[in-house]
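quick one before i forget lol
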Amino acid sequence: MTRKKNPLITGVLGALVTTVIVIAVFGLCARTAGAMSVVPRVRDVKSPRDTVWPTREYHVLIASEAVDQVALVRFGPQGTEVVRTQQVGIMLADPDGPHGVAVSPDQQHYYVTTAHGMPYGSLWKYDARTSAYLGKVELGNFPATAQVSPDGRTVWVVNFNLHGDMVPSDVSVVRTHDLVEIARLRTCAMPHGSRLDPSGRRHYSACMMDDVVVEIDAEALEVSRHFRLAKGAEQGMTGAPTVQSSHAAHDMGGHGLTTPAAGSTTCSPTWAQPSADGRTLWIACNGTSDLVEIDVERWEMRRRIPARNGVYNLTVTRDGTKLIATNKRDQSVSVIDATSGHELVRLPTQRRVVHGVVVSDDDRYAFVSVEGVGSEPGTVEIIDLQALRTVARVDVGQMAGGIDVVALPR
């Protein structure tokens, strides 16, 4: 016997299903299109009273992982302000986690990595002037640091792979014009902060769990060399790394916040930074709180430079004279003389968990992202590299991480 359907129940269920679908599709479309909002302008929330504002405008993009947001911050004659925010991601119930931000050399586009996915993350492309969504491509597990090659043709993204066992992960190479992943190169466990040299011919990534830095030949698209970074056992090698160190000795969950055991020689590298001329490579050893300086041509260590507790990310001025380091466990930023290795100044940050740093195109200012803790907002701190002092701060979304300078039409 066939049971008759109750028209009232059928109607109610149909309406509920339709409502859920409409809400889901509306939310998905809004996020996929990269909904942009102009936020109430918050100016100079924590700037010194005697700040001398610049005579021109500077702009930076900052990704806030906890709120799926990229903010555009302006710093200029009128002070510091958040101009607009951009939502990035498609997951409605869980953050997609925008992590890395990379602006193209021609300043026309920017790219954002979202670390979370089901199970893989993605790389998103936007118009730099309007923040219009231009497409995305799925990559590997936990895409993190990103950089556009000097010729603008490719984006290089490390797949950090925070999930599961500590197994070798990879670096994705994506063609910019059509967002096609042209290569995925196996390197090491948890590749982190990575950078191309100024020529674009060599790519370096720090292997957080294997205590090595890996060099990729960007033209051949293959691993060419690696360098062991454990204190007292430094050694340059050809080819890809084959022997992994003990992963148990590393900070797997704290992202550089956990204090290492006393006497540890584990580098736990978190960033690889080529010099302005490409002849030198600096590695941030978060575990030993120092920098390994490598002669690129000879592939030998020149020296270890003492740094602050938990040194994390690095950048160098375009004139090659200053190295800027964020110190994750020290709640500070260091400006270092690149030639002597001496610290010129240590500047405490207002909030904890200091993350990324970039330098303006004229080498005048450094822009630092600070994640904050718990319900605290993220912060962008601005350092005058001539006066060697912090001159402005402005709040952005929680867990501010990836940051890059963008030149917008005046």
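fyi The domain at 15-405 is CATH 2.130.10.10 (Methylamine Dehydrogenase; Chain H).
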